[in-house]
Specification:
Elements: H1 13-32, E1 56-64, E2 69-70, E3 78-82, E4 87-92, E5 95-104, E6 107-115, H2 126-135, E7 138-142, E8 145-149, E9 155-161
Antiparallel strand pairs: 1-2, 1-3, 1-9, 3-4, 4-5, 5-6, 7-8, 8-9
Amino acid sequence: MRSPGPTKPRFSSTVRTARRWLGAVAVTAIVTGLTITLASAAEPAGDLSPPILSILWLWSGTQMSDGAAVTPDDRTRYTLALSPDGRVAVQADCNRGIGSYELDGKRIAIGPLGVTRAACPPGSLSDTFLAQLSVAAIYFVQDGDLYFDLPIDSGTMRFSAGS
């Protein structure tokens, strides 16, 4: 007589087939170096955001929730570029920096950044730009522009694609 022991959970043939298919897709992706993105049920396939990677983004400014606005005189001196490999490059007026970023759904975390510390001319927004990037929490794309929401609804940074 067999002694009762732990039993393996039984899966329906649909679940087994799905697991086999996903396993084959994962192995294929690893072997070929493909990146596969699956849309979640909460995010319909037609609602996917335009890509934000491998684009030079120029900072148009930040609209603060108290009505104040921060706008650079020369947008080309405040830039952001997100590489597909998780690296970020920034120009903050007379300073340049590199670091890392993470995307998780619509959440973004930038930093830490290694930044040069040149003394920019009076009126520079370098420190403001870098401080806002370091706390960016949510991103979205609207009408071709990239937006970063700052924490606690304190403001929104806006970027446009460079040419």
